[in-house]
User: Fold T-box domain-containing protein from Dissostichus mawsoni.
Amino acid sequence: NVQLEMKALWDEFNMLGTEMIVTKAGRRMFPTFQVKIFGMDPMSDYMLLMDFLPVDDKRYRYAFHSSSWLVAGKADPATPGRVHYHPDSPAKGAQWMKQIVSFDKLKLTNNLLDDNGHDSEKYAEENYKTFVFEETRFTAVTAYQNHRITQLKIASNPFAKGFRDCDPEDWPRNHRPGCLPIMSAFARTRNPMSSPPPQ
Amino acid sequence: NVQLEMKALWDEFNMLGTEMIVTKAGRRMFPTFQVKIFGMDPMSDYMLLMDFLPVDDKRYRYAFHSSSWLVAGKADPATPGRVHYHPDSPAKGAQWMKQIVSFDKLKLTNNLLDDNGHDSEKYAEENYKTFVFEETRFTAVTAYQNHRITQLKIASNPFAKGFRDCDPEDWPRNHRPGCLPIMSAFARTRNPMSSPPPQ
DNA sequence: TTCTTGTCACCTAGGTGTTAATAT
DNA sequence: ATATTAACACCTAGGTGACAAGAA
Assistant:
């Protein structure tokens, strides 16, 4: 059994239509994909890996007037079957279960030549179990399209703090009209990012 | 077979009498202990670990007038048998050998209550091979005693760049008397730190 | 046009020796 | 006296979106 961490934040993005930047050098995902794992055999070794499933083979473009994604042709040839092994692999079940497993080093790239930490598919014949979290679905972009996604990223990613025009700590004391939509998405009870989990 | 990396730098420190700061929170070693490994079985799994051997059970204090260490009593009770497993352990021989193995995350502490990434001794009964590098011998201190050690740390550790009063790149162009001894210790051919090995 | 890339200021995160204050 | 601690300015290292320039 696997439980997605930061589910509330993922849901918030998902409601707007999550976008993830891809670059040639590789860009981290935000929110970070991290999970709690239950029910492994504590003494057995496990490999943990992550890959990405194309939802369809279409290409989309964002229509700003209607704030929606429109089909705009066929997708690029599918990404070669690459998987990202969690760097702690292999490890005992007990190790995986005793703390949150984070894929924060994982980077998305549109450079087909660069592996970026991805390995070619192996172990395909072995027993494995797959978990899909629909709320982590995203559209890969080279620049953000939906401005509300940009604002939610700025509001919730600590590394983008430089672009905030309103300190969440100061709200509602410093309440200004322009901050309201961001703040409503940044309710502290739903977003524990500011105090990241140990290790 | 194991080969110490940055041996020239280690030798330079060792000639002066290397000192390493220990703190309650833990302090990295500098130079970093890193090695190249040869002759493992590529397919076998290996644990790699590091520990510290007290050279004697004496306590020392530094005599500034003679620039030497004088015996000043008996050592504290020996550190409990703690070892530091390399975080990549276990891994195949091929993996260990294909790049430099670095213990850069290792931290020294005088806090007996804090493990600081150290594990209690295990595998004592299993087959293992030990390598000692005499040139990495050091004196644990809470504050640097030998000023020449301080200057060599400042000259060679990138994180201490803020304390340099002379940019190695500008020498001998900007040659000033006060910089000469530091620069002679920082010959670029003997200190590749400025361009760290990939990954 | 539309999409992609490279550079930038601004952050987070954490490793330095210094210094002054505190402990022994 | 001497040894240790804690706060600090100054770094390295690298993750952000904005923006201007370039490519398709």
User: Anything to note?
Assistant: The first strand of chain B starts at residue 2 and ends at 4.
